[in-house]
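Work Package 3 (structural annotation) set out to generate three-dimensional models for the target panel prioritized at the project kickoff. During this period the team completed the workflow that converts sequence records into discrete structure tokens, so that structures can be stored uniformly alongside our sequence database. As a representative example, we reproduce one entry of 540 residues exactly as it appears in the project archive.
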Amino acid sequence: MKYIRNLFLLGVVSMLAPYLISCEDDDNGIVIPVISVSNVSPLDNAESIGYNPTFTWEASADNFENLKFDFYIGTEENKLGLRAQDIKDTQYKITKNTVMKGGVTYYWKVVAKDGFYDNESEVWSFTTAAPDVPVIESPLDKSLLFVSEGDVLLDWTDSAGPNGETAIYDVFIDTVNPPVNLATSFSGESEFNATSELTPDQRYYWRVVSRDGLGNSFSTETFSFDYLAAKEPVKPELSEEVEDGVLSLDESLVWGVALGANTLDVYIDTVNPPLNKVASDVTGEGYVVQTKDTPSDINDIKTFYAQVVAKNDDGESKSEVISFTPQVTGVYTDVRGSESLDYSWVRIGSQIWMSQNLRTKKLTTGEDLEKIIQPTSADYPITASTTTLYYDEHPADNGPIPGYPSFTAPWSDGDNGRVYSSKVPRNALIAPEGWHVITDTDISTIRAYVPNASDLLDEWYGGTDSYGANFLIAGYRYNNFTDDRPFGFRYVVEEGRVALWINPIAGTNDVWELYPAGNYRSYNQGNEHNRMFGIRLVKD
């Protein structure tokens, strides 16, 4: 037991006379009144206690008639909160039903006080009964129910209050989620015939709330079911996210709720009705159209037709056919920390290519790449052990180059972009999400669509072509300086081809080269530390 004595000025000691008892010793000392308080119920460490227990305690004091009590409770033993004060009785009942929760351990104590002195009980604990939450038994979530099968019975487990109180059930049924329409309230059997609340060919959401007389309430999960007039799915309503008939890059075909459908198939084709199935057994409410689904280019913008087929075990139903043309050009904004760059892109067959070379100075995390500093031919900073990621900028940025009038600024900050060391295209953080450095597969695909490289180049220095690929060289950068490559850039080679890094696989260090004469070539650069080239990105 702990005793606490309030401090008073000596001049008011006489006021305490009714509460003081003189000792028999010569000092005529003052004896502190005895106050005792101890908990009675709920018992310490009791379990399965209801949510509105009555707390009782015992107390004694020399001046018992002056005692009042403060009641403390909380979920942490050392952080109890004052719930009630100046209680005159030796019991207290929490009457606000939302205070206590099911399955929670609570701690409590009582402080007895007579106006001048006080004493507190031990801290006891108890655990409330786990909530008797009702559970839906039928129909199960996402069930298919048919008018021909008769009444729709909603069934759930029985529920009762923590002290055995009779439950009142509130049944919510609605076409929106979460359901807010209260269909009925009753006590008794945990079942409800919902047929009169339903209209065929609708999706319904439902839940049950169990209440007791003390104000406690518990809800089931929200389940759904489709209530159908026929056993095959309801015809899906297909729409598309288009403006002026153009389906934007990465946009979706959307059909919303497909009532009665287990899965759907998606068809996209250049014929009407479409015959080419692009996706099977889709379970959602939309499909993101892939680039491969709508092969097209700026010279041949095709019209595509789309349809979805809803399926279940008893049959299928088809949506109306819609038509659209795919977006063939656009702009991607690449944000890397403080850097924000716009890149044009173009659709070429079943691929989306950026039509500008990479010109970033950062990884996608915003971390800086390092610019090469090479004051003399012997000062090339890249060695076999170098892990630093480098870029460099073409001398054309600094003014005209004698003998090469087509080399003009802006170069590095224009379509040509910058050159990068070989470890840069290998780094997973060089391409933004949804894009990648060109691969051998990308090259094979575009070569099948455009067999002659000259059709993608036109004049190399202009970068114009009928497909809008705009292939340009960022630079052909060597590790040293010679008469034909001052500052490391070999102008005569740059004038006759485009060279871009290929996203490498183990053991390779390849560059893809395109020539105005019409041929393609993948060339292994051997010593990967010697040269730097541009990077072009393709959409995943």
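The first strand starts at residue 4 and ends at 5.
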